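Dig into my protein:

:::
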Amino acid sequence: MTKHIGIVACSAEGAALCYRTICIEGANLMGSYAHPEVTMHTFPLSEYMRYIEAGDWESVASLMLSSVAKVAKVGADFAICPDNTIHQAFDIVVKKSPIPWLHIAGEVAAEAKRKNYKCLGILGTRFLMEGPVYPTKLTAIGIRHKIPEVKDRKRVNEIIFDELVYGRFSAEARTYFNEVIGRLESQGCDAVVLGCTEIPLLVTQENSPLPTLDSTRLLARAALKRATRTASQ
């Protein structure tokens, strides 16, 4: 039997993409129509935003711990969170969690190391771009990073919260994101982290000026490997 994956979700579009990736790509590892058992729980994004905007990561962690307790209670063996921003509370969560976790930025960093990238541009919410989640993981393995300039961070954040989380993916937003990625390339970045789990629904490898590291799908694939690898041991 495979291991049961618990998803601690935050925003709908990113969580849905992560879930769909597990279900669709599970067949590549397990056979037609097959995937590991999956349980997902989320509080309304509004509850998370109240604490994120206040910089109250202890309360963010409390929401995550409540979610992981629910998925663990119904049998999840380990947890993932398809939301980069709230990983700022990750270290608080793992100390109290009833089950182990995979870290989204850890999986992205491992892929960047595998591909021998030297400097990554980071895109995401302003909380993510200006926070420690990616710098901590990348610095530990000797990869540099850059974030967009202030006006670009502001506009990227607006697009995420005003459009992407509501499932709106416009050509104008795609063009803007690609312009920002182009500016990161001019600063020496050799790849870009799509560090909001909705961004891969807007920016693809085919239309990006730089190679992309899709945090949503990388996390989903890591969860699939964890679930199936453990089962085979």
